[in-house]
Amino acid sequence: MELDLTKAKEFYSKMLLIRRFEERCVEFYSKQKIRGFLHLYIGEEAIAVGIMNALTPEDAVLATYREHGQALAKGVSANSIMAELFGKQEGTSRGRGGSMHLFDANTRFYGGTAIVAGGLPLAVGMALADKMMKRNRVTVCMFGDGAVAEGEFHESLNLAALWNLPVLFVCENNRYAMGTALNLTESETDIYKKAASYKIDSKQIDGMDVVEVAKAASRAVEDIKDGKGPLFLECLTYRFRAHSMFDAELYREKVEVEEWKEKGPLVVFQKRLEEMGLWSEMDVKELEDEIKTIIDEAVEFAENGTLEPIEDLEKFVYSEVSNG
Amino acid sequence: MDNTITYREAVREAIRKAMREDERVFLIGEDVGNYGGSYAVSRGLLDEFGRERIIDTPLSESAFTGAGIGAAMNGMRPIVEIMTVNFSLLALDQIINNAASMLHMSGGQFNVPLVIRMATGVGNQLGAQHSHSLEGWLSYIVGVKVLTPATVQDAYDMIGLALSDPDPVLVFENSLLYNSKGSLDTKSTPIPIGKALVHRPGKDITILTYGINLFKALEAAETLAKDGIDAEVIDLRSLRPLDDETIMKSVAKTHRVVIVDDGWKSGSISAEIMARINEQAFYELDAPMARVCTLEVPLPYAKHLEDAAIVQVDKIVDTTKKVMVQS
Ligand SMILES: Cc1ncc(C[n+]2csc(CCOP(=O)(O)OP(=O)(O)O)c2C)c(N)n1
């Protein structure tokens, strides 16, 4: 993976899009246009952008309830995501999913799973289907460090390794599961070591550095497509915001958050570009304007969206196709 | 073509036929391959279809059920076998939060064409962790369909029906039925999902049941006939969706109802059926409805205790007579 000006712009603007999109979400949450649980990804943008860079449109992604960033990076439109958050028919899930359940068939984005670790078995099955049908594509499964304590994590890793499946497990280790620090819940806090115990090639990387994530992801996806079976990336990161909009953040010190902010993905990337002499070539103001336009448009799209008619409420409980 | 085979063979033949006709179909579960299925349903299939399509799994109900869901979302037609319904509890998260919710949660984008087969049933002295009938309880879940084949014909037909359905279908095979024999017509058109079947027409009272209790109910009906009571016996076949139409039609004809259900009374499928009859056909009733269920105890091991806890023919006979007397 070559980091030239074009790639640099792409990475920076994607991370910035996620950041600004979510900041706007906070605004609309305060205005009560967005309701329900809202989990922000701010601070973790480098992971989504770095991982998705390695994928083709044919590759599938499964994520958790903190998935705005992954969805945007996979190419789900800001319009449809915002419309979903506003509960509109034009949303990714016709207003039935909300922030925690974004789904998009066009970009092969499979959610949006709010049961911690619940997506891992699905990813195993998606990859199994690809292997059985001899389709050379990858399923990426993203989850938090909290998922590691669930049985499904272990069951799924075992199956993926046993069956040599084309799946990339990406653990976004932001050190907390809601308010509980990893060292209070895990005897082994180096998560990649758990994956290794299932004979899965696994690495711990700096999840704040989009370039490092992108490189590791490209290598991993290439290896998986070469038939090397499942791979595991533990991306060390931090969320700058509360767990959700309801979290009073009693479990961590403000200084810790501030320290991490200095290591944030946008800051780190700017420094890297400065060192490479590319930063001066970037017109950040222009990028900000472009992103503002995209988000303004998304908000307008969402505002103008329609509400799913109540008569359609019971649609999609079962498929409409009938087999007689 | 008409021939007599066992319920077990009927299920196996249906799986074999589906696998021959559609390369997307595969069987996955504990001991389905080398062992031949814990109830020997899949015996021989490994030889015919190989390890790629008859997949032995570790003891990981949640992961292999979830893998079935994921594979279904990605174009396959998996048949997941769960050894017994008791173990499906470890996969309930996947069944409810993923399989049953996916289509709706994704705004209609991702359906889950998945079949989950489970053995169910009571009466083998297996104790509380191996012999419950939770199909009524699982039929509470919106987004899945629940089938309970009682006959050899249904054991065969329902696998095909479930596989061609675009949504997740749970098929409950009563383990005590596997050795039962019946005739199978592989050329007949299957009765669709959601349709109940009047097995024995009658005019005095309706006995609603499903699964193995169909045979207990039919036996009871023969005894009752000797006392001049002409019972109509209905095999529900499908617990979700329930066939309200057939139920209400029968109630309108006999005006009396007994429900025979392998589940515990409280919150059971029989409770649901009573509620529906109350809502839809109350004025047709000539007597309070009654039901025969499993006693509200975790199933005991000792034979006499187990027998006392579960549905028996004489309990059906007694209950039916009581209802007749009340009207
Ligand atoms: C099975 C399950 N248990 C509990 C919860 C409640 N819950 C929601 S998010 C969360 C923390 C998960 O932390 P982690 O996996 O590290 O992800 P993060 O929120 O840090 O992105 C918990 C406990 C849940 N959603 N699912």
TrEMBL record, chain A:
Molecular-function GO terms, alphabetical: pyruvate dehydrogenase (acetyl-transferring) activity
Per UniProt, subunit arrangement is: Heterodimer of an alpha and a beta chain.
Query: Which controlled-vocabulary keywords does the entry list?
Result: Membrane, Oxidoreductase, Pyruvate, Thiamine pyrophosphate, Transmembrane, Transmembrane helix
Can you name the source organism? Candidatus Sulfurimonas marisnigri
Write out the transmembrane intervals.
109-129
Domain (Dehydrogenase E1 component) ranges: 14-305
Function as written in the Swiss-Prot or TrEMBL entry: The pyruvate dehydrogenase complex catalyzes the overall conversion of pyruvate to acetyl-CoA and CO(2).
Under which name does UniProt file this protein? Pyruvate dehydrogenase E1 component subunit alpha
Q: What EC identifiers does the entry list?
A: 1.2.4.1
Report the gene name. pdhA
- Cofactor(s) it depends on: thiamine diphosphate
Keyword Transmembrane assigned: yes
Cross-referenced InterPro entries, in alphabetical order? DH_E1 (IPR001017), PDH_E1_Alpha_Subunit (IPR050642), Pyrv_DH_E1_asu_subgrp-y (IPR017597), THDP-binding (IPR029061)
From TrEMBL, chain B:
Start and end residues of each Transketolase-like pyrimidine-binding domain: 5-180
* Keyword Phosphoprotein attached: no
Q: Which Gene3D superfamilies match?
A: 3.40.50.920, 3.40.50.970
Which co-factor is required?
thiamine diphosphate
* InterPro entries according to UniProt: THDP-binding, Transketo_C/PFOR_II, Transketolase-like_Pyr-bd, Transketolase_C
Q: Which residues form a coiled coil?
A: none
Q: Which UniProt keywords apply?
A: Oxidoreductase, Thiamine pyrophosphate
Q: Does the keyword Hydrolase apply?
A: no
Molecular function terms, GO-annotated: oxidoreductase activity
Cross-referenced NCBIfam families, in alphabetical order?
A: PRK09212.1
Protein name per the record: Alpha-ketoacid dehydrogenase subunit beta
Organism, by scientific name, is: Candidatus Sulfurimonas marisnigri
